[in-house]
Structure formats: C-alpha cells, structure tokens
Amino acid sequence: MRLCVIPARGGSKRIPHKNIKDFCGLPLIAYSIKNALNSAIFDEVIVSTDDEKIAEIAVKYGAKVPFMREAKLSDDFATSSDVVRDAIVKMGDEFSEICCLYATAPLLTPDILASAYAQFKGVSCEFLFSATEFSFAIQRAFKLDENSYVKMFHPEFENVRSQDLERAYHDAGQFYFGKRQAWLDIKAMFAPYSRAFVLARHLVCDIDTPDDFEFAKKLFMINHQS
C-alpha cells in the first residue's frame, strides 16, 4: 500500500501560518492535499501537524489527521525525514511505499505526481525525489571576502563556455518517494541508490520568505492561464 505524508507544522517563523495562508483562493496546503488525492496513487493521504487549525483545514480538503505530531518533532531541529519515520511507525506495517509531499508545493499537478510515481516503480531505486536544473553554471560560482573582492571556487572554468560545462541539479523541495525500509533505516536521500524526477524551473519555488510566497503566486497564475 502507498502512503502520502504531508508535513505541516504550525510554527513557521518567516511567514506566519504559512501552510494555511491564502494562496490564490485556497489555503496553501489545500493544493498538496488535492494533488495527492487526485493523482489516484495513494491509499492514504495524511497530514502530520502539531496545530489544530492546520488539522481542521487538512480534514476539510480531504486529508486524514490520524494523530497530532509531538512537540519534539515540531521544533526547528526536527527534519522532514524524522516526521515521515514517525508517521510510518504510527500508521502500521501495511504501507510499503511512502511519499513525503510538502505542503508548500502548489505548482505541482496530479499528473506530475503520477508520472513521478510511475518512474519510481519503473526503476531500481530506494528514493525518487523532485529536482530541477540550476539556472546558471555552478562551475562559475565565486565567493566574496569581507571587502567584496571576488574569488572563484573553480578558476579553471573561468574561460570555458557555459554550454560546455556539465549540467548541475538541485533538490526542488516538492516531494520524495521512498521505500518503507529506506525511510526507517535513515538512508541518505542524495545517494547513488536515489533517482531524480526533473521538473522545469517554472514549476519550482522554495516558499521560505514573503517574497517567495508572492513569486510563487505569480508562477501559479502564469502556469494556470487558459
């Protein structure tokens, strides 16, 4: 059986009540819940939260909240993997495939989730997670000293054409499919036994600040133009 876990704690600092803040007409978390349900790939869609209001909204949009998250898993040091492992243990042994879907992923669609799951099932891997390509060649990255003088991390690439440099990707922070035992064994996510499901950059926005939130809304409206 397949379980979708949506972590959504109540203590967001930079964007208060971020997970239930209005986003183009719906609470932000509602998009992840609806996408998970409409993908038709999960036997259960649950929200792991420590907040009663988030729990109420999650249930309103069709998710289940079978338990309230403990305080020790809701502070600034608890990881998403910690939350997923807690949910796996509490939900029982019948779930063999678990997806951690972030509450801050409104740019996804049910079809994207279904396609990602099909790839997860079709290849040999422990995890499959969303990723996207860096918008600029990371080999050209540089740092600044205390006086803003420049020093390249890799000066050997200074005069190499960008189209000749190897492409690089980063975690898109949207979803993570994994086998039950891989989650429970605390296996590293970014390892050779993991695969990446590459998303176009216009489908990715890390919603961490108020500016991010507004930018994500603009991307959402562009993506959903008829």
UniProtKB/TrEMBL annotation:
Single Gene Ontology MF annotation: nucleotidyltransferase activity
Keyword Protein biosynthesis on entry: no
Keywords: Nucleotidyltransferase, Transferase
Superkingdom of this protein's organism: Bacteria
E.C. number: 2.7.7.81
Signal peptide as annotated in the record: none
EC class (word): transferase
Organism: Campylobacter gastrosuis
UniProt record similarity statement: Belongs to the CMP-NeuNAc synthase family.
Pfam family, one: CTP_transf_3
NCBIfam families the record matches: PseF
Protein name stated in the entry: Pseudaminic acid cytidylyltransferase
Lineage, highest ranks first: Bacteria, Pseudomonadati, Campylobacterota, Epsilonproteobacteria, Campylobacterales
